[in-house]
Amino acid sequence: MDHRPGPDLQADEVTALAGEGDPSTALFTFFTRMVMQAAGKRTVIDLLARTGTEIQVTQSAQGLRHGIAELLALAQHAGTVCDDIQIAEVMALLTSTRQGALQAGWDRYLQRRTLTVIFDGLRPQATP
Description:
The protein is mostly helical. It has helices at 6-20, 26-50, 65-78, 87-104, 108-122.
């Protein structure tokens, strides 16, 4: 069983997706997993709070910035993310979406709908 802290596992996942994942979907896959994990943590935090255990959640995606930038570049090269999207914008979206999912414990429907809106905004728009 792997007992490494979350950020190490996430860094490993970014590296694996960048090296072996589908360049056209790797960024979206990682983004989705991060939001799902954050929403799931809300349940654990609530359960621990009921027992009187105080939890501080301070884990940041900023430590993964370099790897996420690589996923962004791969997606842009594959044509699935607009060329003018910057890493700062992706990090802002990821950070705020994770926090929303964590704080409110989003259900799967809200996760899916929110991610659809974000991903549609990242994708190149079809020209008429």
